């Protein structure tokens, strides 16, 4: 039996606005005023520092950030520093995890990875995991970063997920922003994109449309993509 979910691709949205939107949806879900939701979007150039708090992995000073038009946020997801920008598909699954049925929070992370791995497989690309890191890799280059928050429900048993994945779609995104940081604190490996590994051209909207069926299949939903 499949579950219903609202899936929205909303184009580009400022990071702070999207973070506030997640919090609003989480609150409404906890109060059972709203159902589950998958937000798909892009951000303008932004660095986010997760709960591991390693500001030394940011290689640019305040003046350089301002000159390059890159925003900076310290946020409440797990993980280290990463980059968001045009040409990257960001997915925020806002899902209820029912603790009465037993929870595998690490399993949720593996499921998010599997969605991307399955999507890449449709193009003959072998996506993989590295045991010591979260995310999806092609060879020794990361194509998708993952960092989440599990929000404890106040009004029912369980957690509501927020934050999610950042999937590099357009060629050259690694040149745009990743060179200003040590991505996720990992120095020994590089970063790649869907266009780099397939040799094909994609829009971020196409990637969003392509990923949705794999998300639905793995998590048991029946949502269709709504464009805004």
UniProtKB/TrEMBL annotation:
<dbReference type="Pfam" id="PF21948">
    <property type="entry name" value="LplA-B_cat"/>
</dbReference>
<feature type="binding site">
    <location>
        <begin position="145"/>
        <end position="147"/>
    </location>
    <ligand>
        <name>substrate</name>
    </ligand>
</feature>
<keyword id="KW-0963">Cytoplasm</keyword>
<feature type="binding site">
    <location>
        <begin position="77"/>
        <end position="84"/>
    </location>
    <ligand>
        <name>substrate</name>
    </ligand>
</feature>
<comment type="similarity">
    <text>Belongs to the LipB family.</text>
</comment>
<feature type="site" description="Lowers pKa of active site Cys">
    <location>
        <position position="142"/>
    </location>
</feature>
<keyword id="KW-0808">Transferase</keyword>
<dbReference type="InterPro" id="IPR004143">
    <property type="entry name" value="BPL_LPL_catalytic"/>
</dbReference>
<comment type="pathway">
    <text>Protein modification; protein lipoylation via endogenous pathway; protein N(6)-(lipoyl)lysine from octanoyl-[acyl-carrier-protein]: step 1/2.</text>
</comment>
<protein>
    <recommendedName>
        <fullName>Octanoyltransferase</fullName>
        <ecNumber>2.3.1.181</ecNumber>
    </recommendedName>
</protein>
<keyword id="KW-0012">Acyltransferase</keyword>
<dbReference type="InterPro" id="IPR020605">
    <property type="entry name" value="Octanoyltransferase_CS"/>
</dbReference>
<comment type="function">
    <text>Catalyzes the transfer of endogenously produced octanoic acid from octanoyl-acyl-carrier-protein onto the lipoyl domains of lipoate-dependent enzymes. Lipoyl-ACP can also act as a substrate although octanoyl-ACP is likely to be the physiological substrate.</text>
</comment>
<feature type="domain" description="BPL/LPL catalytic">
    <location>
        <begin position="32"/>
        <end position="223"/>
    </location>
</feature>
<feature type="binding site">
    <location>
        <begin position="164"/>
        <end position="166"/>
    </location>
    <ligand>
        <name>substrate</name>
    </ligand>
</feature>
<dbReference type="InterPro" id="IPR000544">
    <property type="entry name" value="Octanoyltransferase"/>
</dbReference>
<feature type="active site" description="Acyl-thioester intermediate">
    <location>
        <position position="184"/>
    </location>
</feature>
<dbReference type="InterPro" id="IPR045864">
    <property type="entry name" value="aa-tRNA-synth_II/BPL/LPL"/>
</dbReference>
């Amino acid at each position: 039996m499949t579950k219903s979910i609202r899936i929205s691709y909303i184009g580009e949205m400022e990071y702070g606005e999207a973070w506030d939107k997640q919090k609003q949806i989480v609150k409404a879900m906890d109060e059972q005023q709203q159902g589950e939701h998958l937000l798909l979007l892009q951000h303008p150039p932004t660095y986010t520092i997760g709960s591991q708090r390693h500001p030394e992995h940011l290689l640019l000073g305040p003046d350089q950030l301002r000159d390059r038009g890159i925003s900076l946020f310290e946020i409440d997801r797990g993980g280290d520093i990463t980059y968001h920008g045009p040409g990257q598909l960001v997915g925020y699954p806002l899902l209820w995890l029912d603790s009465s049925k037993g929870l595998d929070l690490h399993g949720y992370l593996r499921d998010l990875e599997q969605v991307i791995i399955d999507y890449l497989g449709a193009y003959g690309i072998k996506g993989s995991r590295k045991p010591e890191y979260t995310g999806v890799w092609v060879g020794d280059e990361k194509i998708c970063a993952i960092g989440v928050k599990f929000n404890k429900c106040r009004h029912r048993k369980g957690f509501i997920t927020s934050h999610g994945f950042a999937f590099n779609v357009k060629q050259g995104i690694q040149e745009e922003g990743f060179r200003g940081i040590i991505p996720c604190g990992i120095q020994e490996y590089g970063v790649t994109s869907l266009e780099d590994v397939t040799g094909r051209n994609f829009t971020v909207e196409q990637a969003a449309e392509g990923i949705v069926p794999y998300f639905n299949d793995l998590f048991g939903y029946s949502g269709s993509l709504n464009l805004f």
